[in-house]
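Hi P.,

Sorry for the delay on this. The queue was packed all week, but I finally got your sequence through. Input first:
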Amino acid sequence: MPHRIGTDHLTRAGLNLIQQALTIYDADLRLAVCNRPFRQMFGLPQWLVTPGASFADTIRYLVETGEYGHVDDPEGFVRDRLEAARAFVPHYMERTRANGRVISVEGSPLAEGGWVTVYTDITAIKQQETLLRARSEELSDQLLTHAERLAQTNRALEATVGQLEEAKRELTEAEARIRLTTEMAPAHIAHVDRDGVYTYTNRRLSAVLPGRPSDIVGLGFAEALGVPTATRLRPYLDGAMVGEASVLEFTDTASGRRIRTAFTPDQAEPNAPINGVYLLSTDVTEEAQARAALAQTHKRELAAQLTSGLAHDFANLLTIILGLQGRLEKMPLPVAAQELTGATKAAARRGGVLLDKIARMSGPQELHPVPTDLVEFLGNFTPLARAPLPDGILLQIDNQAEANLVMLDAGSLQDSLLNLVLNARDAIGATGKIALSVREVQGTWLEFVVTDTGPGFSDAALHAALDPFFTTKGDGGSGLGLSMVYDQTKLLGGQVLLANDPTGARVALRLPLKLAVANTRPLLILLVDDTADIRTNVREMLTDLGHQVIEAETADEALTLAELPDLDWILSDIRLAGETSGVDLLNNIAVHHTHLRLALMTSLPLTDDLRQAGAAHWPVLSKPLDLGGLHHLLTSEVAA
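Then the structure:
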């Protein structure tokens, strides 16, 4: 602040030293700045040269003191000047004051509103012109008149040049601000001309589409984007060249990113010629992943609604069939009939297993990615995957990912990978090789690829293998394995890609690559439960997430421990020993400790009144708890 005060003082001192009078009025016609020569030139009182002085009061004072000579209608004169000021335009003029002195008046508007005016006493110049006219009889009056006009024109031209320089400076600053703004935008903004050559870019292309150059001015459309991408976008660019604005969302093959590009014709008005196309490209990969997960959730909900009633009735029919077959087996039947009843019961039981799989596929399922050590995950997965493989099949695991701590739902991923390994085993037969590789794709996806040395996918399998009930295993397969893998992957916003390699089948699971960020500070959590084994279980999960835990067995102990400083969370069972429930406990704590985060856990059903009472105020976790659910609760609530 002292530096600012010193700068203002120096500025005022400098303005007072110049010969011309200077004023700056703001958009409200109030004085912002003036110098000492202004007051001296017009003999103004102090109150009219003080910032905030009214322009109208200044004009009125000058009229009353005779600055403009005799004025028939002073208020009308003031009103006209005010109207001119409100519609201020650049100007240069010369006028003779009532005292006989001649001044030039040069005014320029300001971009922020208001104007600046410079008054110069040119009496001496005018006197020289008059003297030259009087003493130069040899020169014609016409030549002298032209000289005077030329001098006046030169002065006006100098004023105009000054205004143009100021306009140029403001335009340069505005262009710099626009450039800075566009380069800060998380999108690529560009312009191509009629020939498809880039004439402008905010140098963000490589951030949106990795592998492309940043500075593409002067490059052609295909040269900047690459032929495959340019070919995909060319019809929309051509459409914009004839006035058809459009928006395209596409997947960049090289990076796997989802990109949304808007094509806007460069056209001043509807019927004007089109000078090119403006392009706005944004990375919507995370949005697309979220849409895919939401769409899969809706599909599951719809499937659950469609199958729940049918599954119930079908289960009843299977129960009746099994009961009737059991009664038939008790009768004295021929051996052939007994074989038929046994086969019927086996088929009915298989139908029950199938119903259970359908229920697991379409039933509610919450996936919560948690910070996962990729090396540790693969280390734990390796013995699980090797166990069901015969000695003749080699399992090879190759981790090429640079990231180590990533966000994964380890349980669902492990189930999916085991399913793929078992499918590969069935395809190979007695001998061969199964390979699992992990790599990052352009910082967008974490890709798990399972390949085998089997016969590969048939054309029909490549087309329909992810559909429910499609199987190539005959009676030995349910056709739900890959469907379950697809379902769990899509719920996480990922992709399942099927292909054939030269050596066999290839299945790739692409999951959104999200690096885990360790907590800057471990949370201090009060865990309340009257069962020691449950407290031990939950405490270990919380400490695995990096948090600190203190325990209470009763509501009274919890009320005492809630007074501890630096406590962040309280997680309580709904049913506690004694008369006080977990809901009562949190109600009490919420009144006296409004800063604490509160949550409940229970094994009570969703319809239970006590559970519903707690859920009306706080998050409620269902027992048995899992690591993903705990992490999701703590991170989402902290973020909120």
